Amino acid sequence: MRAPRTNRTTRKQRKSSFSVDYRRRKICRFCENKIDMVDYKDERMIRRFVSDRGKIIPRRISGNCARHQRQLTVAIKRGRHLGLLPYTSESYR
Ligand SMILES: [Zn+2]
Question: DSSP letters of 4-69?
């Protein structure tokens, strides 16, 4: 099932005199796609919420709602345990 993406906030609509850009209201991706359980096996989905150093992206940046962020952290930790996701990245030092 693929819901049409209607709810996107259009950027560049308002003239930004100062940085309004990252204070833009974000919508929880999981709510948007009507996912009620975050699947730890869905690596592609979860990977978006992990930084390139393997850290979990905080809610204030990802825009997830509290419920899904909580599920996501569990899913990421499970994914790490299964070896789907890195704990850390070695390429940075
Ligand atoms: Zn949500």
Answer: ----PPPTTSS--SS--GGGS----HHHHTT-SS--TT-HHHHHTTB-TTSPBPPHHHH---HHHH
